[in-house]
Amino acid sequence: PAGLALVATPIGNMDDLSPRALATLAGAEFILCEDTRVTQKLLVRHGLSIPLRPLHDHNEDAEIPGILVKLRSGAKVALVSDAGTPLVSDPGYRLVRAVIEAGLPVTGIPGPSAAVLALTLSGLPPHPFLFQGFLPPRGGPRQAAIAKIKGMEQAGLAATLIFYEAPHRVAETLAALIEGLGPERPAALARELTKRFEEVRRGTLAELLAGAEADPPRGEVVLLLGPPGEAAEGAENLDDALLAAMRGMSL
Ligand code: SAM
After folding, report:
1. What distance in Å separates the CA atoms of residue 45 and residue 190, rounded to the nearest whole number?
2. According to the model, what pLDDT value does residue 244 have?
């Protein structure tokens, strides 16, 4: 159908492009994308030749009026990002808002998103979850963001937290999370999902930091934290189990 289609693309494994995603891209008048080279590679692999138009944070506002004109004339336009689901820590939100406000059709072709896949593989409670995306890269604003999370937790938020992070900042971010939220929080580091070196490390924040220092995680990573109280609960259960075991022992 005419309108804007948000099309999810692979997060590593090129086979994770659904037939409907492919058909939608093939039927688009043009594709809005981040890095045209990345999307071009995807198109070439599937034998497609569709005009590409870059859409990123710096030109999104300027591009919106022209895209709306196209959509009003009945064009089919697709939006992709370099990887995964558009808008999720990627451009497109302002465009989608504008399309909705203009009363024009918008639809989505679901597919990979690193956040949801990492959540399901983490072994942490799947809901409620809070997707935080990237923390601010610099120390001060990052501590402030973590303090804000701590404030929400003190007010009762008990959710699994999901962060995106650049691999070279993982150890630094783990240290900042330990400083703000304590070393005992259950956590997980999911890296290179859907790729050859896919790996999920699970443990307390302190254990993950020790691991990240000894063996820095390479590639793309998602960092997850279990809800507060989980660790304490786990420890209580362990205490109960120990007590029960000791009661059973004839001393
Ligand atoms: N839109 C994408 C999505 O739906 O997942 C996310 C784009 S964001 C700019 C890129 C971040 O997503 C990376 O820094 C990493 O935190 C995460 N990511 C993307 N692909 C990943 C993968 N294969 N394994 C682990 N994390 C990944």
Report:
1. 27
2. 58
Nearest to 92 by CA among 46, 53, 48, 56: 56
Identify whether the C-beta of residue 111 lies closer than 8 Å to the C-beta of residue 21.
yes
Tokens of 198: 């896919």
Dist CA 49 CA 63 (whole Å): 22
Residues with Cβ within 8 Å of residue 198, at least 6 apart in sequence:
191, 192
Mean pLDDT of 196-223: 96
Element (H, E) at 76: strand 76-79
- Which atom of ligand 1 is found nearest the CA of 8? 4
- Output phi, psi for 231, to 5 deg: -60, -45
Q: Which residues line ligand 1 (CB under 6 A)?
A: 11-12, 81, 83-85, 88-90, 113-115, 164-166, 190-195, 220-222
- pTM for this predicted structure: 0.91
* Cα distance between the two ends of the chain: 75
Cβ–Cβ < 8 Å for 84, 9 = yes
ipTM: 0.99
Q: 43, 49 in Cβ contact below 8 A?
A: yes
